[in-house]
Each structure stands twice: as structure tokens, then as C-alpha cells.
Amino acid sequence: MWRSLVARLTGGQKVVGSNPVIPIMYIFASIISALILVLVICLIRTFKSKKPIAKETRQLLISALIPIVSNLVVVFSSNYQLSGICYFLYFSSTDWMLAFMIRFTCKYCGYEYRKTLKERLVGTFCGLDTLIMVFNPFFHHVFSSEEVLFGNGHLYYNYVSEWYHYIHLGLSYVLAAVCLVLLLIRFIKSSSIYRERYFVMIMSVLVVAGWELYYILNPNVLEYSMVGYGSMAVLIYYFALEYKPFVATYRLLSEVVGNISEGIVFFDENNICIFANNKAKEMLGYGQDQIEGAWKDIMMMTAGDEFDFEDITREGYFQCVRNITKEEGERITYEIEYQQVLDKKEKYTGAFVALKDRTEEQKKLDEERFVATHDRLTGLYNADYLYSRVEKTLKENPNQRYIVVTSDIKGFKMVNDIYGTRTGDDILIKIARLIEGYASKDTIYGRISNDKFGLIMRRERYRESLFSEDMVKATTSNPDMFYPIIIHVGVYEVTDRRIPVSVMFDRAFMALSTIKNDMQKRVAYYDSNLREDMLWEQRVAGSIDAGLSTQQIIPYMQAQVDVDGNIQGVELLARWMHPTEGFLKPRRFLPTLEKNGYVVKLDQYMWERACSIIKKWESEGWEDLYISVNISPVDFFFIDVVESFKSLVELYEVDPKKLRLEITENAMMYNSGHRIESIERLREAGFLVEMDDFGNGFSSLNMLKDTPIDVIKIDMAFLDETKNPKRAKQILESMIALAKKLEIPVITEGVETAEQVQYLTEMGCDMFQGYYFAKAFPMEEFEDRYLRSGEKLIIANGGNDVLY
């Protein structure tokens, strides 16, 4: 078309191909055919592309194929009508190709174009132009045809431009200019990083425009401008879907790598640093002039003390974590990753090293590990980690003898209550520092729980004084603390390594428990007998339910008599006919049951048996007798004692005065206000309350002053447990006299000799209980001996006539 325009401008000179040597039409046809093949290949590849612009590129390629194919058909066609149709397709399709070029450019530049007024306007112009050209066969206002004969005799119909053809060309110029302006605007507004992608498109359009300009100025019988159109389409496809914007990519990578928080270092094939971001320089402490020689230092840092860096480079990949101490003493942790870079032929082209600062993460990890294995307050090992370390040590030293030591502070809860938890914590920290101070390197120690510490040490290093003397000094050095800090220690020599480590420490605590209430003895040692005692206690405590349900627990009775030998009542005592342990007296099993809390079940059982016996005696005519039962201090912790007794006498319909309740001074030591209130409620309900073992506690007078009791029981063991019996008798006489003045009856138990009966009677004692009069008997035997016979216990001939 450009050639025809020039022909018109130069006076309508006709051009006829007349070269008989080289058939120029075949050369042109070959070029066009090759271009069509390339366009088809590009078109096929657009269907496989996943890029968002693939659709617009595909539309542009299709629109470019139509005029090129049409022009090729014209060259080989000698038919006038077919040539006219192909010229129509050629002229009209160039409009639509440029329209799709605008659509592609908008998509490529990120402009909003689809379904907008701009797109509809371009489509309207192209549609009108196409419609006008449809009428060319009738009016010949666009083009006309002339015959051209090539040198090889081939007839070819060339077009001759008419007036509307120039309007059509003007529209094409406008559409092409729009594309170029859009690209230029985006090129100017874009960041320098992204200008490359627009620059290549601008250059493609300009190259094609130059090609077209050349053929305008140099007319030719064949339409070589089609090569320009096709080339532009191919270039657009390439730059849109295949081309990698290397400059933009490099700049982006440089920006990203340069600003990431990790250090990145690249080396060439000669191990010379060619790039290092700012973070890497900062981490390595290098300046720009030093970084080129960083290879050896980085490799030595990577290898550490474990590897040869030549082995690392030979492997091609290596990752490690290294702790590095800087000159100023700061300890930092780096994660180092080394990776070789190979080309497509597996040839070494360089390597990169990534450096990550893991110092803070390592600190947090170390803290988490410390918390998981250490006690927060003292910094010593916690129980789990202590046991695991001990287990490992025992396995690694099978021939070494070891001692396990545990400690416990007596009444430590009271220290926290009186002085506060801060003071209690200070004591625990002081003990921890003391243990650290005298522990050798092979001693393993830790805080097991609360105020309990434990350690294991070699047998030859153990000295009892460390725990019986030094520990006391450490905990009594606070002049403001008046509460005595007593530390008891349990020791177990490891003789059986088959048992779990936790059991070894349990055995040391087991030994400690035997002196827990001892104010003088500080260190106790585990032996096999202690273990047997503990196992025995477990067997007894575990069989109490069966003992009660099968009536292995047998009520025994011991008489309480007046000065004339008349039986006034009995104390109900428990005996256990155990199926495997045999006959057990209370002193054998009661401490165990009190320790485990099972004494509550025993007491409730004995209380109910007492009510049933009173009811039985009433039915048999023995209405004047009472029964005394014991209340353990533990009962107040687990049950409502008052409601329990009230429910029992109501259930069995017995007089509460016939059920006397014995309570010891020790039962009143804790929560005395609540227990005094309970005793008052019991007395209000009609029960008589006896204070058992009066005088054996540390606050007897206070108890006598504050506690509402009906009877005092004094144990004759009070006289036996002294080095000054004369003074003890005087105190005993004073207690009986005091009770007389307070009008409180006195029962003396444990009376075994006539001499005791005589001076107790002279002191004014009212009631007696003991072997001198009668030992404890089972209920049936007691009834046969003393109730059914109608006899009384006679005090005569120094007790020789006592009935047994």
C-alpha cells in the first residue's frame, strides 16, 4: 500500500516486474511462508502459556496472519475476483490487527481498556472502515487493479490506491500512534527497574515503522511491508511471553538480596567474592575492599572443628550452626548454608553462602531448655532432669559407689505463713547455693519439689557434718528470723542399681520420714528394715476396708472403776485379728492408719459398735454403764464429728450421756477455735467429753482453761517418763487438786500397782483404769466375767483378790 501511495505522489508511474533471471515472486513467497510458519508456531505456544497476557497475544497473532496470508494468495493467484477479495481482507484486517495491538498494549501496560468507551470507539472506527471497503467492487473508491507480468510470465494483479485508501491509511497511522504513545507514557512513568520491558516493545514498534518507511520511500511491485507486520507480531509474542527482562530481574534480585535480613555472599568459579549484600558485610565485619577475599574465612567458619572445608566444597552442599565469639566477648550464633552452582553441563560455576543470625533464637532455645530442665527459683536441676542425669551417671560408672541424699525443712509452710513467701524463697535459694558450694564436679543435685532437695555423690566424698552442721549454720544466719529452721536429711547408699532412680530418692526420703518430728536428730539412714516397715504399713492400710467389712476388727473393753471397785463404765478399744499379720494391738496399727487417714473409717466403725453395745446392754438390764470411745485428731479433717455422733445416737436411740468421747490435747492444737466450738456443740447435745492424756502436751493449762471438758484422764506413764519421780508426783498431785477445785472428775489410767492405787486415792483420784484392776477383754468375755456374774472388782490385800 505504501508503494502505491508513492507511485501516486510521483506521478502514477507503473512498475512492472521484468527480471527473467531470478523469479522475485518465489523469493517473496518463501519469506512470507516462513513468516507464516513462525507465526503459527507462536500461536500454538500461546495456548500453552499460563501468563495473563497470553489471550491478547493470541488475538494479535491471529489478526496478523490474515493480511499476510491474503497477500501471499494474491501473489500466486491470476484470478481477478480472488485477488480483489484478498485485497479487501488485507486492507480491512490491518485495521483489526492494529485494534488488537491497542488491546494488547493496554493489557501489557496495565491500563483499563476492555469493555470501556475507548475500546468501543476503536471498534466503531474499524467497523465503519471495513463496511465502507465492502462497497469497493461497486464504486472502486478504495483501490483498483492492474495487471503485472513477472519475468517468468506469471500474471499478477496489483492494486492501485484510490481516494478512500488514503483515509484508511490515516486511520491506521492513528491506531499505530496510539500504541506507541501508550508505551512511551508507561516507559516514562515506570520505575527504572521496569523500563526494560517497555523499552523492548517500543523498539519493536519503531523497527517495524522504520521498515515501513523504507518501503514507502522505495516502492516495489510486491508488498514487502507484510514482512514488517509479521515481524512485529513475532517480536511482540517473544517479548510478551518468552523474553526474561534481565535488567529488571537483576535489579530486583539485587534490591531483594541487598535488603533481606540474611547475609548472602556469591563466589565465582575461582572462589572470589563477586557479590555480598550489606547484611553479610555487617555479620562478617568486612569492608568493601575486604570482601573479595572472604572465601577462606567463611569456609573455616563453616567447617569449624569438625570438618575440613575442602570436604565441604567437594560435597557441594553443607548446612550447619556455629557459635562464634567476637573480640569483645559477645557470643553469636550463625546458621550457615553453602551451595554450589552448576551450569547445564554440571560444570562448577561458583557458589553462594547464606548467613542467618540465630543468636536471639538460640538464646530463647537455651532459656526454654533451661526452664525444661531446671528449677526457676534456685537454678538447680528439676526432679525429672535430676533423675535422668543420675541414671546416666550410674550407667557410665558401674563400679563406683554412690550415696543419695535428700533434705526437707521441718514446718516450712509455717515459715511462709509467718515471714512470707519471699523469706521462704530466700531460704531455699540459700540452701541451693550451699549445695552448689560444697558439691564436687561429679555431684549431681537438684530441687525435687517445694522445700525438698536431692543429690547423689561418691561414697568416699560423703561427710555427715556437711548436712548436720553446715546446713544448720546456713539457715540460721538471719538475725531477724526467730522461727527455728530445722533441716532433716535422709541418706540411701545405692546398693541396688536395678531399681528406678526415683525409687532411690524415695528411699532416702523414707529414711528422712523416720526423724521428721525429731528436734535433735538431723540425719537418718535407709536400711532394709525400714523398707519392710513401710511395706507392712502399706499392707495394713490397704486391708482396713476388708478388716472392717469382715469384722476382723474386734471391740475390746477395759473397765473403769471407782474407789470402791465398782465398774462405772468401759473404754472401748480396737484389736485387729489380721488374716496374715496375726493379732494386732492398737499401738501396732493405729499410727499407720492415722498417717494415711484411714483411722476415720476405724473410728466411725467403733463409734457405731459402741452405740449398738449400749443398746444391747439396756435391753439386758445393764443400763447404768457408759462406754468411752476415742476421737482421733484426723477425724476433724475428714468428717463432721458432731453430726456423726448425733446421727448415731438418734439411729440407735441411746442416751448421749452413756457415750463418752475421749479427745487428746494434740487434737486441739490445730484450728482450736473450731474444735472448741465442736466440743461445745457435743456437750449441748448431751455427750460427756473426756480430755485424754492430760499433762502430756505442752499447753495443758491453756486447754484446761479454754476447753469445755467434763472429765480429765491422766496417764500414769507421766511418772514413768521422767528422771525426777518425786517432782512428777508433786505435779500429779497438783493436777488432781486443780481438777477437784474446778469440779472436774479425774480418771487415772495405766494403774498397775497397789502402791499407785494407794497414793492416787490419797491424792483424791475418783476413778481408775489399768491392769491392776482388769486388762482389756473381748466384749463377750467381759460380759461373762463382770456383768453376768454380778461381782465387782475388789481392792483388797494389795490387789490379790482382783478378778481376771
Features:
52% helix, eight-stranded mixed beta barrel, disordered C terminus, 804 residues, 31 helices, five-stranded antiparallel β-sheet, disordered N terminus, elongated, alpha/beta
Question: How can the largest sheet be summarized?
Answer: 8 strands, mixed, barrel
What is the straight-line distance between the termini?
149 Å
Helix content: 40-55%
Count of strand segments: 22
Global Rg: 56 Å
Task: Describe the strand arrangement of the main beta sheet, using strand numbers.
Answer: 13-14-16-17-18-19-20-21
- Uncertain segments: 1-22, 794-804
Structure write-up:
By secondary structure, the chain is α/β, with parallel strands linked by helices. It is about 50% helix and about 15% strand. The chain contains 31 helices and 22 strands. The chain has an 8-stranded mixed beta barrel, surrounded by 4 helices. Strands 4-3-7-6-5 form a 5-stranded antiparallel sheet, sandwiched between helices. Strand 5 and strand 6 form a beta hairpin. The chain starts with a helix and ends in a 17-residue tail after the last helix. The N terminus and C terminus are likely disordered.
